[in-house]
Amino acid sequence: MSANNPSGSISPPPGSRRIRFSPEVSQTLTPEPNRHYHSSASSSDDSCDVKTALLPQPTGNWRPRRRRSGRSWQANAGLITALVALSVLFGVIIWENEGSDPLTDDSELLVTGKHGVVSSDVDVCSQIGVDTMKKGGNAVDAAIATAACIGTVNMFASGVGGGGFMVVRMADGMSKSFNFREAAPASATRDMYHKDANLARAGGLAVAIPGEVHGFATAHRMFGKLPWKEVWEPSIKLNSEGFRVTPTLESIMLKEEKFFYENRKDWSFLFSESTGNLAAAGDIMKRPEYAQTLTKIAEGDDYAGVKDFYNGTLAAHLTNAIQSADGIATKSDFTLYHTVVSDTVNTNFLGNEVITCPPPCSGAVMLEGLNIAEGLPMDDPSAPASHHYLVEVMKWLSAGRTELGDPFDSVVSDNALRIAELNTKEYAEAVRANISSEQTYPWQHYNPAYEPNDPKGTSHLSVIDTHGNAVALTTTVNLYWGAKLHDPVTGVVLNSEMDDFSIPGRSNAYNLEPSVYNYIQPFKRPLSSTSPTVIVDHNGEARMVIGGSGGSRIVTGVFEAIIKKLVWGYSALDTIRSPRLHHQLIPEVVYAEEGVREEVLAELEKRGHTVDRKKKGEAAGGSVLQGVWRDAERGVVEGVADWWRKGGKARGY
């Protein structure tokens, strides 16, 4: 928490920067126009006055103001229980917390290191991150090396054909947000999917301009210690020499078995040379073309390979692949891509500074949730109302998400003061006046402005190094296998990020209009549910790094994990492995993973919640979390990856 910002509210940034890597001007910093979202910089008196003026006094039946669409707000009662399709999760789900019996001893999944820890979806990738730190790299180097590996092994969810967000918090107190979210091509239009929304999910028209390579290079240039080439070398070796197929990868391939056999020529690397079938867990898989692409990206201390990706042969190959699949991305779109570097957004929660990325990331509404929760009587997880309060806050922050979007869009910037209001302590107090300990309310009570969007799968990793530097990094290609478009020349799996935009004229079953804040515009970045988060204690040291994958369940999952660790006192292991709840406001259902105590669910139902009890292995909370914690008293770093839901494992040294 900044000493200059005792209220804990979000304050305006001094500005942001675009960083481009071009042949003409290498590594230039261009000041942006004044940003409209708020950051971790000190609050000015003016900004505080504006936020206070926006907030009405809670009286009577007052509810916090939210913009509404012009459509009818009457829900169709017959559709109240409609369910949103949930992502496929895998692995054995084992719960020990909250009164359920442990099925196995999984204490070995808590990793402790004296120097540093990496927690990720893939065991071998976490180890690559640790090895990077052992060679003298810092948390930024380790995060990039780990992510490069995840894009290799879990290519269905991550890779250089996608994008994401990164929070870097250095030990000297500097924090930065890196927005390398994919961007709409210059020729993209608001109504381009009006006739066929499926075109946003698969094929060339679904592809937005990838940002991962640019984002990694930008963060490395600002904070990395090792040579650029060195952080890529382990993944280049994995691709060229081969890696073992994980049970997770096998499971995901089998979900699209028919598609891969029908398109075998374009996806040949997924097939076993010995059997001719899709590779099985334990088989060795090689991606030689992808190895060559990573080798090219890693070239040059001046990031020559990055320039090639955005304005050279790699850009030409990728645009050719996209256009051959009826896409509209051009080489010029690649050349114009930039990473947005800005101050983080933050709040103070129980004496800790919570740091995350600004919109179009959803971290801001996660902070809204923490501000609301801070004043609720929910510090005892065994109290009848505690989980009810947890779910109520999830509903409020989900309503807040409907007002977010890319702040560079003029429509979104016009709503900037409203977004700032959502993240004030005053607004949280007003919301608490509209939360009952005895009942929940229909969705209209929470006043969502528009239909909530439902982004899809991602991959997250968390790092703390020996110096106390911390990184929370979330990457994605959106849907599993992105746009189902693999370029055989470069080995790149291209994203389907255009599907994360809202499509005009398609109101949902509750008569909620799609969000105008998330309509397509050229170069715009779609709303994301990612919430990479670093928590700093009162001594100014990184205490906790957390984030996740799982679409709209990410923000509720991260919020719940912070409550469990900092409010309910869960251990690091139980924070990740314990069963989770999820509510995204619409549909009006609490999803409960198996293992949540029946008394908890009964208390929720008593208060009017509809509970969907999920069986073992089914998606429920749906989020897959990766966490790292610093235990100052013991002088160690702890890490837990979500092995129970995605097979990940943390590593430390």
Automatic annotation (TrEMBL):
GO terms for cellular component: fungal-type vacuole; plasma membrane. Keywords: Acyltransferase, Hydrolase, Membrane, Transferase, Transmembrane, Transmembrane helix. L-glutamate binds at R181, T476, V477, N478, D500, S528, S529, G551. Residues 1-71 are annotated as: Disordered. Its EC number is 2.3.2.2, 3.4.19.13. It comes from the Eukaryota. It catalyses: an N-terminal (5-L-glutamyl)-[peptide] + an alpha-amino acid = 5-L-glutamyl amino acid + an N-terminal L-alpha-aminoacyl-[peptide]; an S-substituted glutathione + H2O = an S-substituted L-cysteinylglycine + L-glutamate; glutathione + H2O = L-cysteinylglycine + L-glutamate. The chain crosses the membrane at residues 73-95, 142-168. The active site is at T458 (nucleophile). Pathway: Sulfur metabolism; glutathione metabolism. GO terms for molecular function: glutathione hydrolase activity; leukotriene C4 gamma-glutamyl transferase activity. InterPro entries: GGT_lsub (IPR043138), GGT_peptidase (IPR000101), GGT_ssub_C (IPR043137), Ntn_hydrolases_N (IPR029055). Residues 1-10 have a biased composition (Low complexity). One of its GO terms (biological process) is glutathione catabolic process. Cleaves the gamma-glutamyl peptide bond of glutathione and glutathione conjugates. Belongs to the gamma-glutamyltransferase family. This is Glutathione hydrolase. It comes from Sphaerosporella brunnea. The lineage of its organism: Eukaryota, Fungi, Dikarya, Ascomycota, Pezizomycotina.
